[in-house]
Design goal:
The protein is α+β, with helices and mostly antiparallel strands. It has two domains: 64 residues, Arc Repressor Mutant, subunit A (Orthogonal Bundle); 166 residues, Chorismate lyase (3-Layer(aba) Sandwich). The chain contains eight helices and ten strands. 26% of the residues are buried.
Length: 261
């Protein structure tokens, strides 16, 4: 959906605002996106119209847009314009799924990155324990949704995901809707709840397979595994999902691509 050049929700920046001008522009653009003026997939007006409305140069605007693109809030498409970022399978693989086959162990699997087959093996409701409450910044005992998924690559169960969501944030989310979603979990958050996951904070540790993980992945209890604790964040660094991924690293690795910011 395209909006007209006149954008009443964008405000002209005041003289003497706080911080560098391009960051003031970034905050103003992020404000209207977060407020729902532009939905995921929407096209922003042309750069000239935005710059005139805000009272800044094209160069300043482009620097602000560059930061929002880097932060996965916006996407540029050559010849088409700038869009509010949508969650897709490609983005999930690039930004949030880091498990790949280890080539020396399984060379036949290492030719290309693969989107995992996801099976929901449990969906229930409970109360937040200390870890859940701390990760989601909710109160101990608040209602939560507890979801267990099995992720398989090339038909082999590799990851046991345990998701914890605030039941107050995701009101009305049912097992049927969760299982029958057409895309990724984060796409569901975006389409049904207007929540865009921008990034995640992760901590990894070595551990051994619990009875539950052994059952989900079909491995021996006590098998050495990698456990990754992820907190998914939306605008304002607000946590919206706490996920514990237990990975069978027998022939798979957790791969992270690092670059200079």
């Amino acid at each position: 959906m395209e909006h007209s050049a006149a954008e009443p929700d964008l405000r002209r920046l005041p003289a003497g605002g706080a911080g560098p001008l391009y960051r003031q522009v970034r905050r103003e653009l992020q404000r209207v996106i977060e407020g729902g003026r532009y939905a995921p997939g929407d096209t922003l007006p042309n750069e000239g119209a935005i710059a005139r409305t805000l009272g800044v140069s094209i160069g300043t605007l482009r620097r602000a847009v560059d930061e929002l693109v880097h932060g996965h809030v916006l996407v540029r498409q050559q010849g088409r314009g700038t869009f509010v970022a949508l969650h897709s399978i490609d983005r999930f693989l690039f930004q949030f799924f880091h498990v790949e086959p280890r080539a020396p162990c399984a060379p036949e699997l290492a030719s290309a990155r693969e989107y995992p087959t996801v099976e929901c093996v449990a969906f229930g409701r409970g109360k937040a324990d200390e870890s859940d409450a701390a990760a989601l910044q909710i109160r101990l005992g608040d209602p939560v949704l507890q979801i267990d998924n099995r992720l398989s690559l090339a038909g082999r169960p590799v990851v046991h995901d345990r998701l914890v969501l605030s039941a107050l944030t995701f009101r009305g989310l049912t097992e049927r809707r969760f299982v029958e979603r057409p895309g990724t979990v984060y796409a569901l958050f975006q389409t049904d709840y207007g929540i865009t996951v921008l990034r995640a904070r992760e901590r990894a540790r070595a551990t051994s397979a619990s009875r539950n993980t052994a059952r989900v992945l079909g491995v021996a209890v006590g098998l050495p595994v990698l456990e990754v604790h992820r907190v998914a964040l939306t605008f304002g660094e607000r946590p919206v999902e706490y996920r514990v991924s237990t990975i069978d690293t027998t022939i798979h690795d957790y791969v992270s691509l690092l670059s200079r910011s």
